[in-house]
Amino acid sequence: MSDIKIEKNAYHHGNLGARLIELGLEVLEIEGAEALSLRELAKMAGVSKTAPYRHFENKEIFLASLADEGFRLLYKDLLNARGNEPGSIGRMGKAYMAFAVSHPALYRLMSSSLLNRMPDSFKVWARKTLVLLSNTLDGVQNDENLPLNLHDTTAIWAYIHGLVLIRIDGLYPQDLNQPDWEQLAGTAFVLPSKTS
Amino acid sequence: MSDIKIEKNAYHHGNLGARLIELGLEVLEIEGAEALSLRELAKMAGVSKTAPYRHFENKEIFLASLADEGFRLLYKDLLNARGNEPGSIGRMGKAYMAFAVSHPALYRLMSSSLLNRMPDSFKVWARKTLVLLSNTLDGVQNDENLPLNLHDTTAIWAYIHGLVLIRIDGLYPQDLNQPDWEQLAGTAFVLPSKTS
DNA sequence: TTGCCTAGTTGGCACTGCCAACATTATTCG
DNA sequence: CGAATAATGTTGGCAGTGCCAACTAGGCAA
User: Fold this and answer.
1) Which end of chain A is flanked by fewer CB atoms within 10 Å, N or C?
2) pLDDT tens across B100-127, in order?
3) In terms of CATH architecture, what is A1-56?
């Protein structure tokens, strides 16, 4: 809240919108979502308190932009983890977990009810992520295809999503032995529907 | 926000703490978590703006109390769904989904990072719920026992938790055919670890 | 009766999102 | 080139919030 540098700039910042997203991600990681105010971000960017409204209609839309950016980053990590050899699904599970653990506040934002209220243009990367999961499941490497098996994909996504949230939200009782989160994330991808 | 009755009462309300929880649950369902302010609840209860602070140290603690109450209600529903015959795990999955769908804002609050920052006294019912799930899995009917198989229980909890959140947060792309959520919730309980 | 304790009151501060009106710079086009 | 115009920022201000400090009303016990 106090030791974050304040920028000084010309009248026209040049790229305030993008800069606010960057700063927003920082604040999110360091101080959490509750501490994130547009006014403070504006101050950090060295700009007046209402300048952000020239780039984002309101706070909710700003947060939704942050969430979309989060899905872009997650997508990148998952793509990276996939590689070519078999077992990629397991690696993607671990990458998914790793992402959420290193950006907990961002991941929480991504999985809030925010995007629910937004037009599809804010769900570009969320959707791509789902498709990536689905295609990997089906052994498809072309990410532009439409997903084939959405039922199973949903089950698997739900599993890793819930696992990650239980962990980062500290829902698991602290006085019990913690489960092996990494291992659970790696074996995430056994299909319920294939065994029932 | 406007058509909610305001109560008139004597100086000493008698049970303001409990009344605020009730009103909080109402506001949560009707207007969502963002619209919930202690000041408005106080007004609804016919009491001055800072009276709530005599019962809850701060807003976060009030919200945590709401979340705990939520787990109590969920626990009750799950216990009800369990019954005695086999297949109870599937019924509990559906009951879990039904609870979240009819109290989405409350469920979101229950699964926020709030409880993370609270002492264990706010996690009484969250813990009981986990134990109930675990014991049902193991075929144990005595809910006072310690859970046996926390690894599998965590996996299953993660699955239903994630499924429910994906649904109520509208994370699933709206333009795709929606999966059969009920069916997914009912077949939630296939153990990953038993098939890998 | 006295006096304490609990529950509730009023006033106020610092902060927030966001609106209206205005100022400055950049861009486009006659 | 110069002027209109659009894009981007600025200031002042409003209503709402959480929460603090100081005060008060009423119930209960000694």
Assistant:
1) N
2) 999 999 999 999 999 989 998 899 999 9
3) Orthogonal Bundle (1.10)
